[in-house]
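ok here's the first one, seq then struct tokens
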Amino acid sequence: MFKKILIANRGEIALRIIRACHELGVQTVAIYSTIDELSLHVRFADEAVCIGPPPSIESYLNIPHIVAAGEITNSDAIHPGYGFLAENADFSRICIDNGFNFIGPGPDIINAMGDKSQAKLTMKAAGVPVIPGSDGNTPSVEAALKGAEQIGYPVILKATAGGGGRGMRIVPAVDAMERAFNTATAEALTAFGNSAIYIEKYIESSRHIEIQVIADADGNAVHLGERDCSIQRRHQKLIEESPSVIVSEDLRHEMGAAAIKGVKAAGYVGVGTVEFLLDSDSNFYFMEMNTRIQVEHPITEMVIGCDLIKQQIRMHANEKFPEYFYDFKMRGHSIECRINAEDPDKNFIPSPALIESFHMPGGKGVRVDTHVYAGYRIPTQYDSLIAKLIVHANSRQGAINRMQRALEECIIEGPKTTIPFHQAIMRDEKFRSGDYNTSFLDTFKYIPRSI
């Protein structure tokens, strides 16, 4: 086991990793920008190193400063969390070249899975069903038009290096292609420094189902069930649940087996997520693989009864995963709501502000992952996630009722938050019945409080 881990991240995920490390008896090093000096991940780490000013490019994306922080603190491993450099192959390579254990995949695997068109080819070769689309990148509008003609409209353009819905455009018909192509490539270049995109058939009325996987260095791999992440706004997940109400035991086994095929074909080690689209006829298609811990990992922890961060660290310390993972059982139902500092009454405009009052719910089956507190000022430089509210109950209806109760107990004064939006979804009859897909929010009638 490692002696000291530097966490190359901030916010709730940095604090989450610190907690797992301390329970493993591992010392921790936090890094922080000057504006994050009073963040809880800095307070609760064993050591903390300031690595630069607030802009991410000068701090949390500054690889030389992060590596230097690891060297001066004698860290023997670096954990990237999610976001920032978590899926950056150069960062993985530089960490390894400088003598650190990188708690994530090696650069070759990150490159293979991070390039989404290449990942599709890898999965297709392994026998995993993939969405019909281009074999490789789509270099021009003309190529996109030709590809769309072959697979049929509607299609979707996706950034090869993408994530979080950026560099992604749905194209319903031929006359929308040129504008969509130019917008997607420009957005991809701005967001990822890579303008390459590829084209796929757009599967309507689909569910976004992801399979949690874990693999050790000896080639053993298992899946730990699914998460339904279909409640999305502009391809950004807002609410996740596990298990999915529409995934049967047989389908879970089939999707899990396909995910493991892909993991083994890629030579993957650690925790990761294989993401699928599930159509209305229960056909599933590979979308992408995330080579990191997911924001929504707590709901899997709640239904499986394990600590995924601890297991991730153990896999990269060359330990085997527990035998009971081969015979896991999903117990009960878990839901996660992402609480963002955004104003749903005003089209989700960010609301960075001083948190004047902060009280999170408690009680049976309630968990809160957060790095903020009363008196904390939300910075403008980073994403707006301020807390993850997670509940667990014996049934889905019980989990929905528990989430309603927990949301009512949330008190956050100062910034506007997405809490009332989540409350409205929990009351919605379609959501409560499980009758939803990735287009749910396109027709969801949210009435702002000010009206």
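and now the second one, same deal
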Amino acid sequence: MKTSWLSTLSCRFSSRWICAILFASCLPAFAAAPPGFTPLFNGKDLSGWRGGDTFDHRKLMAMPEAERAQQIEKWTQSMREHWRAIDGELVNDGHGAYATTEKDYGDFELLVDYRTVPKADSGIYLRGVPQVQIWDYTEAAKFSIGANKGSGGLWNNSEGAPGKDPLVLADKPFGEWNSFRILMVGSRVSIWLNGKLVVDHARMENYYDRKTPIPTKGPIQLQTHGGEIRWRNIYLREIGSPEANEILRRHDRQGYETVFNGKDFTGWAGPLDNYEIIDGAVRCKREKGGTIYTQAEYADFSVRLEFQLPSGGNNGLAIRYPGAGDTAYDGMCELQVLDDHYEKATGDKIDPRQAHGSAYGMVAAHRGYHRPVGEWNFQEVTVKGSKIKVELNGTLILDCDLAAVNQFMGDSPHPGKNRVSGHFGFAGHNDPVLFRNIEIRRY
């Protein structure tokens, strides 16, 4: 059974605080922000907003500064012709560029009310990526594309993907205000519409390039699409890494067992003298290394853990390690644990198949999803048969099948890549990398 997000939050915050969040959107236009939230709309004018469109935010940021400013100005001019502030409401006439926050956001919780008209079609872009769908659930002409299922789904996800369709129909009748609560950590999104869970921790796909994860940061955009829509009580709370990690760790907990007690190395083997325990975490000693591993063996499994890297830090996760030899070659693989800025920190150039999350020497992971050095990262690895997935801080950075690999870094084969069982462990490389909250679930 999946852990309810409401029960998760109940464990962390007072009931008064939760009520403030859940019911803030039921208040009149421009009510005071709930505790911890910041208004994105001041109820009076368009301060803090620019124009935008369905446009890859990464490409926008990669433009030369002058070209980017010119494009934003063009969108903003269109936006200001069709958006206005009226009595605490942000009103769009159904046309023009999208209302887009000037600021970019990473992990966040968003509260927003909206009211629209029959046959309208709109949405909310998260980090500039479409979209949390808003439409007329009674419009029969669009039933074939899911309108009858209601608003709130991640409509631009692939057909059949989790989150594309809302779990329940939660729209209110036209003329009434609807309230969204949206929680986003990495690419994981949970959505409540009018107090009902409609998307549960689904992975939001990158509409602009489905082979690449969504950006770590981007704007909130309110889409216009042919019919008047009104917005009010738009509040956002940025989520820091400790809370983000806890949200990710608490979801779908069933079956996970702790494999490191935080006090000693009970249940572990290997060169344990090369490691130490610091504040409940296991750390490779400086200038020491070697692979330490669980005494238990695993075939198909998921492991969840947190790790913290020093600048230029290097370690690895031993997957189906045989208990001897080099896990990168004799085990199924070594999943790299490496500072994303390793090259800058050390001056050494690496092969893409050496970057963090990569199946060392075989398959490269997507880069750029680490938290800053000194912060704890949350990672989940799933191993089923010859397939491996690595999710870092809520974003899928590796999804590969080692059975299909036939090219290797340095033309060095990996004879262990087809192993079907083995130990889990850490492959230290002289740097004081820390690991904690290590849990494994068998399949």
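notes on #2: The chain has six helices and 26 strands. The helical segments are 5-12, 15-23, 57-62, 65-82, 241-250, 342-346.
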